[in-house]
Amino acid sequence: MSQQGCGNWITGIVLALTLASAAPADAQALTTVTTVAPQSTIFSAPVKNVTLTATVTQGVFPVGCGAVTFQVKAGMTNVGGAVTDTTLAVGVATVSYTLPAATAPGTYTIEASYDGSGCDEESSFGTAILTVFPDSDVGFSKAFLPDTIGPGSTTTLSFGIVNKDPVTPVTDLAFTDTLPAGVTIATPASASTDCTNGVLSAPDGGTTISLTGGGLGANSACSVTVNVTSSTVGAHLNVSGALTSSDGNSGAAMATLTVDTARPAFSKSFAPSSIALGGRSALTFTIDNSLNSESLANLVFTDNLPIGMEVADPANASTDCNFFSTGVVTAVPGTSVVSLGGGGVAAMSTCSATVDVIARGSGMLDNVTGELTFTIA
What we know:
Layout: E1 9-12, E2 20-21, E3 30-36, E4 40-42, E5 48-58, E6 61-62, E7 67-74, E8 77-78, E9 83-85, E10 92-99, E11 106-115, E12 124-133, E13 138-145, E14 148-149, E15 154-163, E16 170-178, E17 183-185, E18 192-193, E19 199-201, E20 208-216, E21 220-230, E22 234-239, E23 244-245, E24 248-249, E25 254-259, E26 265-271, E27 280-288, E28 296-304, E29 309-311, E30 318-319, E31 328-330, E32 337-341, E33 344-345, E34 350-359, E35 373-376
Parallel strand pairs: 14-25
Antiparallel strand pairs: 1-4, 1-12, 2-12, 3-5, 5-6, 5-10, 7-8, 7-9, 7-11, 11-12, 13-15, 15-21, 16-20, 17-21, 18-21, 19-20, 22-25, 23-24, 26-27, 27-34, 28-32, 28-33, 28-35, 29-34, 30-34, 31-32
């Protein structure tokens, strides 16, 4: 998300809390959890908005009556007006809270008070912390490309850094991103950055990505890309640490990766994975639809082989992805492109495509294929 105007950044820090009950000691206590979504939001002048939510329960049951009032304070002084949500659907109150445009960087207190007096519920109160960071001309964003994969598939996690200052370059770009549970750096990670002098760490199979010492010219952009994977079905929210630089604190970046069994896992392997210069290896693409109750048709992908690798002669290309229609592997000897067109895979099953390749160069030859596309049969 890029910087706009001359506003500040707001970011959720620690926003889980328990509210003390205002009822007698022998009454059941209410628990309220107040959160600011764990993301960085640009405060574009003249309006600074942030979403505040509160969850109200009595014991383990959500309270569906009453109202929650939110107030942000600097010490004892109110910052902005109080905002109340009276809907409390399934125990959750949500408001858009506007801070004054002149709100200075610093730490503020969020107060959330629940009033259940109109529906025989006990009232409760609690606090959380909100931090407004100094203004920065450096924007920070991230995205999974694609943002939905099948179990075991690979996606590219891309971080974007933009310097909107038309005159001044920035130095000392740094951030750390710890991947959420169930998501790991792929093997190979194929990690790269074009941030000047940036040192990128993203070990194969690891869970932490970090950039240090990066630089960026005036009115320019750079990026960090790392391949990641997950076999854990569900949505995985990934919130990075804050990006810092010589220009200040740009806040965190967030993105969500969804692992969906309605999509097949798509993977590849070399056998053997280590060969002599001029040696031959079988490159196998596996489409694993074993967790999906739907059959898939029109399977298509393209793999551009890395420099130093080419299709062998003979290619020995083959596929058993022939459900509904015959899949065709295109792999011309001496070229660097392998593709699959057509074909399909039945529900709850797996198919593959194989082609022989030859190493014409030495070293670690990382090979990342394009995205697999398909239709529901």
